[in-house]
Design goal:
The protein has about 425 residues and is of the alpha+beta class. The protein is about 15% helix and about 25% strand. The relative contact order is 0.07.
Length: about 425
């Protein structure tokens, strides 16, 4: 190590103080170093107070000098101290270093410690190797099945399994339901699930809800002559002089409801107490018993047995549905024959056969008596009102081939009742 000679020093005869100028004693000198003064004499460094102040022994012997040159020489004590420190380190950690081996790599250390595989590790009663078989056989000690809830990132595996089990799983065999709001059915049987979701048969209380039945042969856009006049079966125009426009759409028709509305009255016998949901396809607005209902929205609670009126106004409508409960389900598509049968409970048209029948009831002197009868094909909600159709004629054949004609006898009546 080279000697340190930077800067100058101020020394006074018979004084042990050395004051430096431009010096850095702390970093470049040690107690025990040799100080060669401006007088050429050698002294021992006994104290280093700062970068510019230190003490020497013996006191300076030469003449006082305010800016003399000097030198600091390191002594052999540094080597001894280092050797002592190294010896202490070897004594403390030498054995450990020997165990780690002589190859300075991660693989070399693993080899020295026999950690190439788990065979180098001792197996204890609690610290066993986590083989697949042992993982699968591990007992879930501490599993809590009483606290349902959402699994979060801070949960342990056991806590997460417990939450799942308590919330939805059923590993013990006890039936549990999942609420509709959580993506389930709220039931444990197929029948109960259909009922909860409102998908039981006969759910739609509206008749001719796809506007396919038209027994009156109503013509699209024909103006009505009276308020509440029926057009397509079961649907009446509310305001006199307005009309319904309809066009084929799928298996039924799409209508355009007039500004005054088109409506259907539902018998109270079909209404049970509770909330109902009204849904449809189209742009029309709707009311139930005069109260607005959004598409797919619910009515106020209806009283059991109360006549209920559904009205559509000012827009298009197809496949409309009023169903019990608070869930809008898919449109109920009934067979056309079933739909016609429902309509016939309220209205039915009877047409006498085009080729009328000849009925011989008995032979009088020279005349066969002929009679005809028309029958309703479906029971009616109430005693029907018969409305005659156009006048028809028929002939009566006599035994001798002659004939008489009877006129103005109608065999084309229509039926309706006051509820329709």
């Amino acid at each position: 190590m080279s000697w340190y000679k930077t800067g100058t020093v101020s020394v006074a005869q018979n004084s042990n103080a050395v004051i430096g100028t431009g010096t850095s004693f702390i970093a470049n000198a040690r107690v025990g170093d040799a100080f060669r003064g401006p007088d050429g004499g050698w002294y021992e460094v006994t104290n280093i107070a700062s970068d510019t102040a230190m003490s020497i022994s013996p006191n300076y012997q030469g003449a006082t000098n305010a800016a003399g040159i000097y030198a600091l020489a390191p002594m052999q004590g540094y080597v001894k101290d280092s050797a002592d420190a190294l010896r202490a380190l070897v004594n403390q950690f030498g054995g450990v270093l020997a165990v780690l081996g002589t190859t300075p790599t991660t693989a070399g250390v693993r080899d020295a410690l026999n950690l190439k595989d788990a065979d180098g590790l001792p197996e204890g009663e609690t610290n066993k190797y986590l083989t697949n078989a042992r993982v699968l056989a591990a007992v879930l000690t501490g599993l809590d099945l009483s606290a349902p809830g959402a699994v979060v990132a801070t949960d342990s595996v056991l806590a997460a399994l417990g939450k799942l089990q308590a919330t939805k799983a059923d590993l013990s065999g006890t039936n549990k339901t999942v609420a509709i709001s959580q993506g389930g059915t709220g039931a444990v049987t197929a029948g109960a699930a259909r009922a909860a979701l409102g998908v039981t048969g006969g759910k739609n209380l509206l008749i001719n809800a796809n506007f396919s039945i038209n027994q009156r042969a109503y013509v699209s856009g024909s103006a009505t002559t009276a308020a509440n006049q029926y057009t397509l079966d079961r649907w009446r125009v509310v305001t006199s002089g307005q009309s319904v426009i309809f066009a084929a759409s799928g298996p039924g028709n799409q209508i355009t409801a007039p500004a005054g509305g088109i409506e259907q009255a539902i018998e109270g016998a079909n209404i049970e107490a509770g909330v109902y949901t009204l849904s449809w396809t189209g742009t029309a607005t709707a009311t139930v018993n005069g109260a607005p209902v959004a598409n797919g929205g619910q009515t106020a609670a209806l009283a059991a047995g109360s006549t209920t009126t559904v009205r559509f106004t000012g827009g298009t409508v197809k496949e409309c549905q009023l169903e019990f409960g608070s869930v809008a389900t898919g449109f109920e598509k009934r067979l056309r024959a079933a739909e016609l049968s429902l309509c016939a409970w309220y209205f039915e048209r009877i047409t006498w056969p085009a080729a009328y029948e000849k009925i011989a009831l008995g032979q009088c002197t020279n005349t066969f008596v002929v009679a005809g009868m028309g029958y309703f094909q479906h029971p009616k909600r109430a005693a029907p009102t018969i409305t005659p159709g156009p006048a028809n004629t028929y002939s009566v054949q006599t035994a001798n081939g002659g004939g008489d004609t009877a006129a103005n006898v109608s065999f084309n009546p229509s039926s309706q009742n006051t509820y329709n």
